[in-house]
């Protein structure tokens, strides 16, 4: 499997492959590094889609935006699909994208996850405050802002990078 992204969460090193996820314990001392869990048939589409929320890791898979915490808890399909309510449109738009151009951010102050798809010029906004009854998140799409990058500063301000200027969120 091709490694797409790495993340750290709760003392674990998470290796996101294109088709699988490996979770290692003891990442500080490589002599003690141990495969803790392996999640087959769930991978990550784009490196910059991976965001740590503090209590979870959200990422874009072939089946939509997923919650790693739920994947680990369930260890079987169906998993928590954060994007369930917009999955078909989202995945049609993702199919038009170059994975290296996809960007995301988690904004803790307002508890939302943004996923920018530059080719289709859509930004998906997932409200992560409270899952809906089916486990998905409330979702909206934004058009017309066409971000190239996102950053949250130490003072908890969100900035959106666009060609030739920066927008505050």
Topology pattern, helix = H, strand = E: EEEEEEEHHEEEEEEE
Helix/strand structural class = mainly beta
Distance between the termini: 37 Å
How is the biggest beta sheet arranged?
4 strands, antiparallel
Helix content: under 10%
- Side by side, the strands of the main sheet go 1-2-3-4
Overall 3D form? globular
- Give a count of the beta strands, DSSP E runs of length 2 or more: 14
Task: Kindly provide the radius of gyration, computed on alpha-carbon positions and rounded to a whole number of angstroms.
Answer: 16 Å
Structural write-up:
By secondary structure, the protein is mainly beta. The protein contains 2 helices and 14 strands. The strands form 4 sheets. It has a 4-stranded antiparallel β-sheet, with no helix packed on it. A hairpin with a 2-residue loop joins strand 13 and strand 14. The longest helix has 8 residues, at 87-94. The protein is globular, with a radius of gyration of 16 Å. 34% of the residues are buried. The model has no long low-confidence stretch (mean pLDDT 90).
What's the topology here?
Layout: E1 3-9, E2 12-17, E3 21-25, E4 34-39, E5 51-52, E6 57-61, E7 64-67, H1 68-74, H2 87-94, E8 103-107, E9 112-117, E10 122-127, E11 138-143, E12 149-152, E13 158-162, E14 165-168
Antiparallel strand pairs: 1-2, 2-3, 3-4, 5-6, 6-7, 8-9, 9-10, 10-11, 12-13, 13-14
In short:
By secondary structure, this protein is mainly beta.
